[in-house]
Design brief:
alpha/beta; binds S-adenosylmethionine; 3-stranded antiparallel beta sheet; single chain; about 280 residues; 10 helices
C-alpha cells in the first residue's frame, strides 16, 4: 500500500470489488473519478479497525464476521448532504397546489432518500401551517437507505446552520430552541409536525415494487444523480407507478431530464405530473 498524502492508496482490484458491490446493492455508481472519495472515507475505517490496507478491509467486510461493517459501507460512501427548504421553488409549487385544495382534502407525501429528515420536516411544517387556514389531511413517509440517517430523522434535532433556510415563522411555530453546554443552539421538531410523519429504512433500487401505498407527491431529490443511467430510469418508472393519477413527481434540479421519455407532464423545472387518464 502506498501512502503519499497521508491517506492510504487503494489498489485497483479492491476498488473494483467495493464499487461493484455498492453498485449491485444500492445502485450507486462509483466510477474511478470517485477513487479519492473512497480512499478518504474508508481511510477512517482502516484507522478505526487498525487495518493496514483496503484489501484487508475488503477481506473483512466480505467475510462472515464483517456483516455489520458491510451494512455500514454504503453510509460511509454516500453523500447525505441535505438542509431545510432546499430548492425552495419546489415548496412554492406545493403551496400553489395547496392554495387550490378543497377543505379536508387528503394528501400522501413520500420523501424518498430523505437523509436526516430535513425535507420531511420542511414538508410537515408547511402542511401544518397551511392547515391553520384551510384544514387538510396529510401523511408524509420519509425513507432512506441509511439506518443512521433514519435514526437522526426520528430524533429530529437540528443545528441552526441546517434549519436557517426555513422561513422564520415556521421555525418559531414548529421547533423548540435549546442550547447545549457548549452554547450551541439546537432546534427540536415539535409534536405538531411529527404526528403525521413516519420514517422507514428503504432501498430505492430494490424495495419500490413492494410498497403498497400510492402517493399524491413524491419528492425524490438529489439521489438519482448517484445511480447509473439504467438504474435512474428504472427507479423513476417505478416511482411513477406509485403515484396516483394527477400526482406529482419532484426531482432534484439536476435530475429533471429523467422524465423525458415517460408520459409525465412537465409543470415546472423538475416538477412532473402523472396524467389523469
Ligand atoms: C444527497 S442526500 C439527498 C437528501 C434529500 N433528498 C435532499 O435533496 O436534500 C442523498 C440520500 O440518498 C440516500 N441514498 C443513497 N442511495 C440510496 C438508495 N439506493 N436507496 C435509498 N436511499 C439512498 C443516502 O443515504 C442519502 O441520505
Amino acid at each position: 500500500m502506498s501512502i503519499i498524502t497521508g491517506v492510504p492508496k487503494i489498489d485497483k482490484l479492491t476498488f473494483e470489488q467495493i464499487s461493484a458491490y455498492i453498485n449491485q446493492q444500492y445502485g450507486i455508481n462509483l466510477t474511478s473519478a470517485k477513487l479519492n472519495l473512497v480512499e478518504n472515507r474508508l481511510s477512517k475505517r482502516l484507522k478505526h479497525l487498525k487495518m493496514d490496507s483496503y484489501a484487508q478491509y475488503a477481506d473483512h467486510i466480505f467475510s462472515k464476521g464483517g456483516k455489520n461493517e458491510l451494512n455500514l459501507l454504503c453510509d460511509y460512501l454516500s453523500t447525505n448532504k441535505t438542509y431545510f427548504y432546499r430548492e425552495s421553488a419546489h415548496f412554492d409549487f406545493l403551496q400553489s397546489v395547496l392554495d387550490k385544495a378543497a377543505p379536508f382534502q387528503a394528501y400522501n407525501f413520500w420523501s424518498a432518500a430523505c437523509s436526516a429528515g430535513d425535507e420531511v420536516y420542511t414538508l410537515s411544517s408547511l402542511l401544518e401551517e397551511h392547515s391553520k387556514k384551510t384544514p387538510i389531511r396529510y401523511s408524509v413517509l420519509g425513507t432512506d437507505i441509511s439506518s443512521r440517517m433514519i435514526d437522526e430523522a426520528i430524533e429530529g434535532k437540528y443545528a441552526a446552520a441546517r434549519i436557517n433556510m426555513l422561513p422564520t415563522h415556521l421555525i418559531n411555530n414548529y421547533f423548540e430552541k435549546t442550547e447545549d453546554d457548549k452554547n450551541q443552539e439546537w432546534f427540536n421538531a415539535q409534536p405538531a409536525i411529527r404526528k403525521n410523519i413516519r420514517f422507514q429504512q428503504f432501498n430505492l433500487i430494490k424495495d419500490i415494487p413492494a410498497l403498497a401505498m400510492r402517493f399524491d407527491f413524491i419528492f425524490c431529490r438529489n439521489v438519482l444523480i448517484y445511480f447509473k443511467e439504467e438504474t435512474k430510469l428504472k427507479v423513476v418508472n417505478e416511482m411513477i407507478q406509485k403515484l396516483k393519477p394527477g400526482g406529482y413527481l419532484i426531482l432534484g434540479h439536476c435530475e429533471g431530464m429523467l422524465c423525458r421519455n415517460t408520459d409525465m407532464i412537465q409543470i415546472r423545472p423538475s416538477v412532473f405530473q402523472k396524467p389523469v387518464a
